[in-house]
Write a structure and sequence with these properties.
It contains no helices and 15 strands. The strands form four sheets. Strands 4, 7, 8, 9, 10, 11, 12 and 15 form an eight-stranded antiparallel sheet that branches. Strands 1-2-3 form a three-stranded antiparallel sheet, with no helix packed on it. The radius of gyration is 17 Å and the shape is globular.
Length: 220
């Protein structure tokens, strides 16, 4: 039988219950603790599941528009025809000329003490949300981030964080622990397992319309 308990993992302190996946099909789980979301994920995640009580965020921030750059100062741009994103050489003056494809909307969910976000691009007729599914490959699918935190949407969530000793930003997959958004050798945005060299997984960010890039996320 599941029972409520308190746990403190540094970044999260919440009332949770240890249970099985079938006990909480509509309750969001977190990879900050061991979690097995479904039978298809058994090889990727551990058997014990810890599910947060409650389905909605205590606060859902309005989306914020950002431009992203990698460690080589290349700007991330969404390629609509290929449903992918790539880092390209671009001056700050050229970035507005490539809008809206250089504008990445980030929506934050403040349900627990980790910075859970969804990332999407607003096109002229469609919105494209970044998704990480069972093959660990990124894709941009049609849709917008939800207002509620539900397990069925786990593929679109990333944990926004700052690596220790740095003010740059990283995005860890909510589904795949230790896998982060990264720039590969072809300058494409991919999901990469974290290793000793974090350079490819760190980004500088700038709110759209502001020329000076900020070095990562600063808590409010």
């Amino acid at each position: 039988m599941a029972r409520d308990r308190k746990m403190d993992h540094g970044r999260i302190t919440s009332s949770i219950k240890m249970t099985t996946v079938t006990d909480c099909p509509e309750v969001a789980c977190t990879p900050e603790v061991d979690c097995n979301y479904a039978s298809t994920m058994k090889k990727e995640l551990r058997n014990d599941a810890y599910c947060l009580n409650g389905k909605t965020a205590s606060k859902v921030d309005n989306p914020t528009c950002y431009n992203l750059k990698n460690s080589q100062n290349k700007t991330l741009i969404f390629l609509e025809d290929k449903r992918m994103a790539k880092f390209e050489e671009m001056t700050d003056n050229q970035v507005p000329g490539n809008e809206p494809w250089t504008q990445f909307m980030i929506k934050s969910y403040s349900r627990f003490k980790l910075n859970l976000v969804a990332i999407y691009v607003k096109g002229k007729s469609n919105n494209y949300i970044l998704s990480c599914e069972s093959n660990k490959k990124l894709q941009f699918k049609d849709g917008e981030p939800p207002e509620k935190i539900e397990d069925k949407d786990k593929d679109i969530w990333f944990i926004r964080k700052n690596p220790e000793g740095s003010r740059k930003t990283q995005f860890e997959s909510f589904v795949y622990r230790e896998h982060y958004l990264a720039c590969d050798n072809n300058n494409e945005l991919v999901l990469k397992e974290l290793d000793s060299d974090i350079t490819s997984t760190t980004f500088t960010m700038n709110k759209c319309g502001i020329k000076k890039y900020v070095q990562g996320f600063r808590p409010r």
